[in-house]
């Protein structure tokens, strides 16, 4: 599902226009990205959490030459699914 399809699905479930929904989704995504970039954690209860994680420096290989190279430490965005989301994707078996 792409952003346009998401807007369409949300429009079916609300009384908002597609233009309004697109603006809300864009603002939400921008706000989450800004917060994570500032090392804040964003938690949407039941859905999941967005945060910045540190990735340590490590040794890698150049895929073309096979030569060893140092990969620098960096920060990466991360998402952890919440309990309700996990259960929706993979319902617990009984």
From TrEMBL:
Keyword field contains DNA-binding: yes
UniProt key word Zinc: no
Domain of life: Bacteria
SUPFAM superfamilies in UniProt: IHF-like DNA-binding proteins
CDD domains per UniProt: HU (cd13831)
Molecular function terms from GO: DNA binding
Record's keyword terms, sorted: DNA condensation, DNA-binding
UniProt family annotation: Belongs to the bacterial histone-like protein family.
Protein name: HU family DNA-binding protein
Organism the protein comes from: Spirulina subsalsa FACHB-351
Biological classification of the source: Bacteria, Bacillati, Cyanobacteriota, Cyanophyceae, Spirulinales
């Amino acid at each position: 599902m792409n952003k346009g399809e998401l807007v369409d699905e949300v429009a079916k479930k609300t009384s908002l226009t597609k233009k309004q929904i697109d603006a809300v989704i864009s603002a939400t995504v921008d706000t989450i990205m800004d917060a994570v970039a500032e090392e804040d954690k964003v938690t949407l209860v039941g859905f999941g959490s967005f945060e910045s994680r540190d990735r340590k420096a490590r040794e890698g290989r150049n895929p073309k030459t096979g030569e060893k190279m140092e990969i620098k430490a960096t920060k990466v965005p991360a998402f952890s699914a919440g309990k309700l989301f996990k259960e929706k994707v993979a319902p617990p078996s009984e």
